[in-house]
Recover the amino acids of this structure.
């Protein structure tokens, strides 16, 4: 991490703080006027300004914000880097739309986040899907195989771009270098949704991030894994395949015309924090992870997801992010929802999500030793209890369907945009077999659609939705009364 303090040595946050502490009176937006008497949120308004003199304009950055973006760019080593104040969602939309024309074809992994599907609808694209394999030991998606991507591009040579997610929500990292090689051999653009991997490759070279691995467009949610406010993200572009002025045009359409200076200061502050403290924090992070593994290795029932725990070596992942702790209770008397509840109610540990056979703890460079220890201790104690329960009840191993991870995908009747724009009607999920979905049904988190507009509702997807609802997972796209949107016939 090379620190270059020549430009804007104090950073955006300091500039805002100094300005706002001065005597300039705000005859401009925002309406709270930084007045301490503006309600219970007033203390958060102190550095919230708009595009005033000296503070540049994100949509035409020439000064402070240009320098701040260049600073982020140096940290990641991309061709160009853009600030995003509307999360990775906005970066994904801009990336996909900037490299396609309405009606184009793209190749995308079926486990992409819904933002990619939204871009498909907005641009009226024809998606061809890469269906990821499953890591059976943990009921999660595997990484992406470069070889299979190559075969799919051979079969669908009109595709303009390839979109994949790495790391996945559960931390599975694909061999981006190999995928980029294949995609570029076919003359296509590689977009990597690395929303969960903004920390990759910053200090430790392995696993490397998608920018270094040669992807053309890479999207990072800073807020997911680094010290930055919710909604902050970055979009990086590499190489010459992407028309950067077109990309900028989409960004200026998709980002707010009043990007929050608080959020932008948070991005700058995050970048500066990493420059200054990154090496120390990453070392600490890895030490804590190792201690956590050393403690939990004694568990006899609960298993922590690790590459070394995989019984087969024919999976496509090349690494498993240490920040995604998959705590598996597969083949025990417990399920993910119960483990989630126990961790929350008895140990006051709030997990990121629960799936059928595991819970996901997200740990970052900012976690404390206490946090890591509490998690390890709780897992070990619960594991002891499972042992007792198992002995007492000799409970049979339950055969379960993994709700968060699809194996069978619905057939598609029409393009997502076609279905989305058709007349729609609501009907009871159970009565919708054979009907064409007009909306998405997703589990949130992780926000991967179980069904996409244009796909045919079948028994398998209905079973999956009902099972997920029974487990109290957050199913989006089905009303309280169990209704879904289908294309009117
Ligand atoms: C893989 C992936 N991509 C994109 C997004 C959207 O990110 P954001 O919430 O920063 O808009 C998410 C959010 O969960 C995600 O998991």
């Amino acid at each position: 991490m090379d620190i270059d303090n020549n430009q804007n040595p104090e950073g955006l946050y300091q500039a805002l703080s100094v300005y706002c502490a001065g005597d300039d009176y705000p005859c401009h937006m925002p309406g709270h006027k930084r007045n301490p008497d503006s309600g219970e949120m007033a203390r958060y308004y102190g550095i919230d300004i708009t595009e005033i003199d000296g503070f540049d304009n994100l949509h035409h950055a020439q000064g402070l914000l240009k320098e701040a973006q260049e600073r982020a760019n140096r940290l990641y080593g991309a061709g160009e880097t853009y600030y995003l104040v509307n999360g990775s969602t906005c970066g994904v939309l801009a990336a996909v739309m900037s490299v396609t024309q309405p009606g184009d074809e793209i190749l995308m992994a079926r486990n992409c986040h819904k933002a990619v599907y939204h871009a498909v609808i907005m641009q009226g694209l024809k998606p061809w899907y890469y269906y990821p394999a499953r890591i059976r030991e943990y009921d999660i998606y595997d990484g992406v195989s470069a070889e299979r991507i190559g075969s799919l591009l051979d079969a669908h040579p009109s595709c303009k771009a390839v979109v994949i997610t790495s790391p996945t929500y559960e931390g599975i990292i694909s061999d981006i270098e190999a995928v980029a090689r294949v995609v570029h051999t076919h003359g296509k653009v590689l977009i990597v949704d690395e929303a969960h991997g903004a920390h990759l490759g910053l200090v430790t070279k392995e696993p490397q991030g998608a920018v270094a691995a040669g992807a053309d467009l890479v999207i990072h949610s800073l807020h997911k894994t680094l010290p930055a406010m919710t909604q902050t993200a970055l979009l990086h572009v590499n190489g010459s395949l992407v028309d950067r002025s077109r990309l900028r045009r989409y960004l200026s359409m998709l980002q707010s015309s009043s990007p929050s200076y608080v959020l932008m200061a948070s991005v700058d502050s995050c970048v500066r924090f990493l420059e200054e403290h990154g090496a120390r924090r990453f070392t600490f992070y890895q030490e804590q992870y190792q201690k956590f593994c050393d403690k939990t290795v004694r568990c006899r029932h609960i298993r922590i997801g690790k590459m070394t725990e995989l019984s087969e070596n024919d999976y496509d992942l090349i690494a498993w992010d240490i920040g995604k702790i998959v705590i598996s209770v597969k083949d025990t008397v417990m399920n993910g929802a119960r483990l989630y509840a126990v961790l929350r109610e008895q140990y006051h540990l709030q997990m990121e999500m629960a799936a059928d056979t595991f819970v996901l703890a997200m740990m970052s460079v900012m976690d404390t030793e206490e946090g890591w220890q509490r998690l390890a201790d709780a897992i070990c104690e619960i594991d002891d209890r499972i042992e007792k329960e198992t002995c007492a009840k000799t409970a049979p191993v339950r055969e379960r369907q993994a709700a968060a991870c699809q194996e069978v995908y619905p057939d598609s009747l029409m393009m997502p945009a076609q279905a989305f724009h058709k007349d729609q009607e609501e009907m009871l999920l159970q009565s919708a077999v054979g009907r064409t979905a007009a909306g998405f049904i997703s589990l949130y988190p992780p926000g991967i659609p179980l069904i996409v507009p244009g796909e045919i509702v079948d028994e398998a997807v209905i079973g999956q939705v009902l099972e997920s609802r029974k487990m109290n997972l957050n199913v989006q796209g089905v009303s309280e009364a169990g209704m879904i949107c289908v294309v009117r016939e």
About this structure: The pocket of pyridoxal-5'-phosphate is lined by residues 87-89, 92, 113, 115, 165, 169, 193, 195-196, 221, 233, 446-447 (CB under 6 Å). The radius of gyration is 23 Å. The CA atoms of residues 309 and 472 lie 29 Å apart.
